[in-house]
Design a protein that fits this description.
The protein is built from 14 helices and two strands, in the order βααααααααααβαααα. The chain has about 325 residues and is mainly alpha-helical. It has one domain.
Length: about 325
């Protein structure tokens, strides 16, 4: 699916890019002005449901420190599920495909990626895409939903605790994602919090799978329940919280610390630590310079695991029309 011709001007805007910086990759923040919170959250009204739920899920993740909830199977399930749901669902599905149209693929595969993204509990695809498109349009300006130049706390998590009129209901943000909402699948997910109930169902399946495995291994009720909760805590709660903070770190850390390959109109930065944990999403300055590129790593040492998965999917014919960085094309033409 390509959004290049479908997204209204108000929803998608390329960051102003000058010539690539040559040998000056500065480290740290150069953005000096303090931003006010977006007008769309003024006057501030706490989103109590969101606040309570985020805190509650963090508490559930702390169950991982209780030995009874640990098993090697649960721990490994959590690691594998980060790749399945976070990298495939959020990085590839929500971000590089639905938001920026970095490649195209069959509808069944697109919808599968979107469903995997739902299992990270970062909101419906349409709402996630709308927030991210507005971030690019007003990056590090007052209208940016989560600029860390309001405060580092605000950019990382604070913006989630207040009600933003731009994104509170689908009627508020539909103008940013009309290309998505023309697909009945994405419109359906907005109805009756269906996207949330899909997350709950997937959590139940993790517990059921662990329960069945525990029964197979031990043949006891205690063993079954323990394995079920182990997979639920590590494979769902811990994984969700870990990926939440990785995603939020792209919004905060990658606009405060790191180096720049490109002079852009914002303070986006390439942060190697965020890239390591977020599978390439931390090469954020590169991404802001070329938003549609399916690869965020532009230089040879900027490893982007998400890109290599997309490349592999292209090789087997599952995706096509893959957008590559312009600097790669220039290098090939110069050889």
């Amino acid at each position: 699916m390509s959004i290049e011709n479908d997204v209204p001007d108000s929803a998608e805007s390329e960051t102003i890019v000058e010539e690539p910086i040559s040998g000056t990759n500065e480290t740290g923040s150069v953005h000096s002005r303090q931003l006010a919170i977006p007008k769309s959250v003024q006057p501030i009204k706490i989103d109590q449901h969101q606040l309570i739920f985020i805190v509650f899920l963090h508490i559930l993740a702390l169950l991982a420190f209780i030995p009874w909830f640990y098993s090697l199977t649960g721990f490994l399930t959590g690691i594998v599920s980060i790749f399945v749901f976070a990298m495939m669902g959020i990085n590839i599905g929500y971000h590089r495909l639905l938001t920026h149209g970095g490649f195209s693929c069959p509808k069944w595969f697109e919808h599968t990626l979107a469903l995997l993204g739902l299992c990270m509990l970062q909101g419906s695809p349409a709402r996630w895409v709308a927030i991210h498109r507005l971030h690019h349009k007003y990056s590090d300006e007052q209208a940016d939903p989560h600029s860390p130049f309001v405060s580092a706390y605000w950019g990382h998590i604070g913006w989630l605790f207040v009600r933003n009129r731009e994104f509170y209901e689908v009627n508020n943000f539909e103008r940013y994602v009309r290309d998505l909402l023309r697909d009945p699948f994405y419109l359906m997910l907005e109805q009756n919090l269906l996207w949330f109930w899909i997350y709950c169902l997937h959590a139940l399946l993790f517990f059921a799978g662990g329960y069945a495995l525990g029964w197979y291994e031990t043949g006891t009720l205690d063993g079954s329940v323990q394995m079920g909760f182990s997979l639920l805590v590590w494979g769902v709660f811990v994984r969700t919280i870990f990926v939440w903070h990785c995603t939020w770190a792209v919004n905060s850390f990658s606009h405060l610390w790191g180096y720049q390959n490109y002079k852009t109109s914002d303070n986006s930065r390439n942060n190697w630590l965020v890239s390591l944990f977020a599978h390439g999403e931390g090469w954020h300055n590169n991404h802001h310079a070329e938003q549609m590129s399916a690869s965020h790593g532009h230089l040879w040492y900027e490893f982007d695991l998400t890109w290599w998965v997309i490349w592999s999917l292209e090789k087997v014919g599952l995706v096509k029309n893959v957008v590559r960085p312009r600097c790669w094309k220039a290098y090939q033409e110069s050889r």
